[in-house]
Write a structure and sequence with these properties.
Length: about 350
């Protein structure tokens, strides 16, 4: 799509229309813009400019006698070229810092609180996707004896995430032996990402078996099974604020809300959607028809990644109507993503 060039007056009027519609939800007429315009400008002149903007696909007219509303393309131009710079307040910065950086030690608690902050401060839906497993750095491995020959296998990441599986062994092993097996794997595999862990296990298993006693050979086999199973694990998703969307939805939107909530039941789709921003820096805004998921096309998504040490590992964002307050949403998502990054780095150092 070719880049749209607008003169100063057209940019000002488009910005005024979008801002007015975001705050009122009502089609914007030329008289409203003429009264708000800084320089003397007749409603007829405003109508001419608005007609030009409609011809460019930036505005549309829901009804013949109504004013104009922004299109997806109009919102995109507004976000890319007209969005006013905005900072969150110092009190909100303090709340974010205290809630995340001085909050819970475990990763799940941190991400749950982040989703609550996103929802409460934006009055939209807050979504946080847990670190992707391919970037997870192993801290240690534990094996816990259950009844019979069942064993609970656990691996804990440096960020505090805990993953577990139950395995049925062919013969019973004492807890002391299981502890030795876990310590052996933790020593050899700690500090590596999961792809590196799998590669190292294959390397260790290919070495001369005389280097390891029977118990440690079992540890390698159990570790190989355990981390092969981890490929099937999905990142956790934390979603808060569904009532915000329902409160802002009109009666005609309730069917769409049902479709939207059904989409949230498939967490894998949400993970894929937000993790698109892992390869991009800064805050990303996806508007209306730009969404790959059909149920989200009447909505906009503002998202960013957060990091653990050097690399982006997870994503978070807010989902709301296209007439959301983009400047505020962008500043909130940026602040909370940065706070999550700092909190994770403190936990892994």
């Amino acid at each position: 799509m070719p880049e749209i060039q607008l003169d100063k007056r057209a940019r000002s009027i488009l910005k005024a229309v979008v801002s007015s519609f975001i705050h009122s939800g009502q089609p914007v007429g030329s008289r409203t813009i003429a009264r708000a315009y800084r320089e003397p400008l007749s409603p007829a002149s405003v109508r001419n400019v608005m007609a030009d903007l409609e011809g460019l696909g930036l505005l549309c007219q829901p009804h013949t006698s109504a004013g104009r509303v922004p299109t997806d393309r109009g919102y995109r131009y507004y976000v890319d070229s007209l969005l006013p710079a905005q900072r969150i307040s110092s009190s909100e910065e303090r709340v974010i810092r205290e809630t995340l950086q001085e909050g819970p030690e475990d990763l799940a608690g941190l991400l749950e609180r982040a989703s609550l902050l996103l929802s409460r401060l934006s009055r939209n839906l807050g979504i946080v996707v847990a670190p992707v497993l391919s970037q997870t750095i192993l801290k240690h491995v534990e094996f816990l004896r259950l009844s019979g020959r069942r064993v609970l296998t656990l691996f804990v990441s440096k960020s505090g995430a805990l993953h577990n599986r139950i395995v049925q062994l062919e013969e019973e092993i004492s807890q002391a032996e299981l502890t030795r097996m876990g310590n052996f794997l933790s020593t050899h595999l700690g500090g590596k990402t999961l792809p590196q862990v799998r590669k190292e296990l294959l390397h260790l298993m290919s070495e001369d078996t005389a280097l390891y006693d029977r118990l440690l050979q079992r540890a390698l086999s159990l570790g190989a099974w355990m981390f092969a199973q981890s490929e099937d694990l999905q990142s956790g998703v934390y979603i808060e604020g569904a009532s915000n969307l329902l409160d802002r939805a009109g009666t005609q939107d309730l069917e769409h809300m049902r479709d939207l909530f059904r989409a949230f039941e498939d967490k894998h789709r949400i993970v894929q959607l937000l993790n698109q921003c892992l390869t991009s820096d800064g805050v990303q805004v996806v508007i209306g028809s730009e969404n790959s998921e059909p149920e989200l096309r009447p909505m906009s998504l503002v998202m960013a990644n957060y990091s653990n040490e050097e690399n982006p590992v997870g994503a978070l964002g807010v989902l709301g109507p296209m007439r959301m307050e983009y400047a505020r949403a962008v500043s909130l998502v940026d602040a909370i993503a940065r706070a999550c990054t700092e909190a994770l780095r403190e936990r892994t150092n």
